[in-house]
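Lay summary. Proteins are chains of building blocks that fold into shapes, and those shapes determine what they do. In this project we predict the shape from the chain. Here is one chain we studied, written as its sequence of building blocks.
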Amino acid sequence: MEHITETSTLKAPADRFTGDVYLNMIETPTEPARLASALVRFTPGARTNWHSHANGQTLYITDGVGLVGTRDGNVVRVSAGQIVKCPAGEEHWHGATDTTLMAHIAMVVGDGSGDGTTWLEPVTAEQYADALNSTN
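And here is the predicted shape, written in a compact code that computers can read:
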């Protein structure tokens, strides 16, 4: 057994996120394990870029209110205790609403050469505003 009492909080990279986002890694796998997980905290208005995962992603919302959107325009409003599963290859984004922080545990199963995430372009201000308006 390994008891980890603390992990460092890191600022998420600006080339993958808009706004202030903070990460605490829970699990960074070493072979043969492939599950990666992190606690991700989004300040109001903060969000990921568009991205996809080779083997999908599961988000467990721990605090606040947020949004998860897909390329086809589907957007869901999420809050603490809810789970969102994004299938393999689906381009999506997630983040906080404009007035409330949101935190989630993000879980991905890597593809053997990393966590299997393909990072894409930022979610535009217009796309974000449309997502907010569609879930009010």
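What the prediction tells us: Helices lie at 125-134.
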